[in-house]
């Protein structure tokens, strides 16, 4: 009987130590991914603000006081704010990508001609019309994809 209590105590200690290590690692990962890279810059600013975005078949428009979106988008304001405040880091190389990109039509400010970009959501990459690549920090990626009403895809 004494042996089984020692065994239980030993396993409880192992579980406690493993839990502490797991929480420490997750906290460290969260701290590292939430921090923006030093070379990250705003894609849009006051002189060239985002005015419209077409994300595949979904759109958002910032012409009025409040963002308006495709009726199928559930998180309109959060989605618009994520794109409006996006930070990117220029990449000096063409990365290898395996996912299918989302096509973006971006209209900046009062410019009438939209720009065609490609958004690789899995990798967190943007490809400009000129072929330049930009990395989106991990902490900003999730909010860039709209939440769509069920059955509306």
Question: What report would you give on this structure?
Answer:
The model has no long low-confidence stretch (mean pLDDT 87). The protein has two domains: 1-34; 41-144, no CATH class. The chain has three helices and nine strands. The protein is 30% helix and 25% strand.
Describe what is shown at a glance.
The protein has 153 residues and is an alpha+beta fold. It is built from three helices and nine strands; from the N terminus they run H-E-E-E-E-H-E-E-E-E-E-H. A hairpin with a 6-residue loop joins strand 6 (102-108) and strand 7.
Strand content: 15-25%
What is the end-to-end distance? 61 Å
Strands of the biggest beta sheet: in what spatial order? 1-5-9-8-7-6-2-3-4
Structural class: alpha+beta
**Number of helix segments?**
3
Q: What secondary-structure arrangement, pairings included, does this model have?
A:
Blueprint: H1 2-34, E1 41-42, E2 50-55, E3 58-61, E4 68-69, H2 76-84, E5 87-91, E6 102-108, E7 115-120, E8 125-127, E9 133-135, H3 138-141
Antiparallel strand pairs: 1-5, 2-3, 2-6, 3-4, 5-9, 6-7, 7-8, 8-9
Features:
153 residues; alpha+beta; 2 domains; nine-stranded antiparallel β-sheet
